[in-house]
Structures are given as structure tokens and as C-alpha cells.
């Protein structure tokens, strides 16, 4: 396995990061496994796709709901009034159990 998925299980990265930034091309890594690398009260920023071309209006409109769905699965909450017009979407992660 390569990429960030290969890093999930490494002890040196467990609860290591205060902040993780995912570009729109890397958002597929926004999974529950990613949260093993986050400190207990960490933040995630996810890039919006509004500057990625070529996307249809429908694809652009579907992006934020999909990212919200991924956040819910990863036990992250959306912070602030994030809308499709934001450059990035801000999420927080609060560990509620010992992993």
C-alpha cells in the first residue's frame, strides 16, 4: 500500500497531528482511519473544488454534502458557516473514546 493509507497504522503518527489539510484531489483520504493520526482535539481543512476545472455545477454542488458525509463517518464536525463559496471547509475532531 502506498500514500497516506500506508501511514495510518504507524505508531510514530498516532495522535501526532494538530491539523491536517486535504486538497480536493486528496479528499478520498478523509476516512475514520485518518483520525488515528489526529490529536484528541484536532482540526481538518478540506479544500473546496470551486477552483478545479472542469466541473459541472451539479458536481460542484454535490461536493460539500459528500465531504460532510465523510466527516460524519470520521466523527468530525463541521465548524462555522461553511458554504460552497468558502475556499476551504473547516472540521474539528474530538476523540470521545480511547483508540
Write up what this structure looks like.
By secondary structure, this protein is an alpha+beta fold. The protein has one helix at 57-73; strands at residues 17-22, 38-47, 76-78, 88-94. It has a four-stranded mixed sheet, covered by helices on one side. The longest helix has 17 residues, at 57-73. The two termini are 22 Å apart. The model has no long low-confidence stretch (mean pLDDT 84).
**How big a fraction of the residues is strand?**
25-35%
**Radius of gyration from the CA trace?**
14 Å
**Average pLDDT score:** 84
Coarse shape: globular
Report the sheet with the most strands, covering strand number, pairing sense and barrel closure: 4 strands, mixed
Question: Which series of helices and strands comes N to C?
Answer: EEHEE
Count the E strands.
4
- Strand order of the biggest β-sheet: 1-2-4-3
The secondary-structure class comes to alpha+beta
Helix count from the secondary structure assignment = 1
Quick take:
This protein is α+β, with helices and mostly antiparallel strands. The chain has one helix and four strands; from the N terminus they run ββαββ.
Summarize the helices and strands and which ones pair or pack.
Layout lengths: L16 E6 L15 E10 L9 H17 L2 E3 L9 E7 L5
Parallel strand pairs: 1-2
Antiparallel strand pairs: 2-4, 3-4
Provide the descriptors you would attach to this structure in a database record.
99 residues; alpha+beta; 4-stranded mixed sheet
Amino acid at each position: 500500500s502506498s500514500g497516506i493509507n500506508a501511514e495510518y497504522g504507524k505508531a510514530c503518527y498516532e495522535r501526532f497531528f494538530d491539523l491536517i489539510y486535504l486538497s480536493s484531489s486528496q479528499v478520498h483520504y478523509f476516512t475514520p482511519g485518518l483520525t488515528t493520526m489526529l490529536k484528541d482535539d484536532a482540526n481538518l481543512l478540506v479544500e473546496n473544488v470551486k477552483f478545479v476545472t472542469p466541473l459541472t455545477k451539479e458536481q460542484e454542488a454535490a461536493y460539500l454534502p459528500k465531504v460532510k458525509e465523510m466527516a460524519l463517518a470520521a466523527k468530525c464536525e463541521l465548524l462555522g458557516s461553511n458554504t460552497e463559496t468558502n475556499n476551504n471547509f473547516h472540521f474539528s475532531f474530538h476523540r470521545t473514546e480511547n483508540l
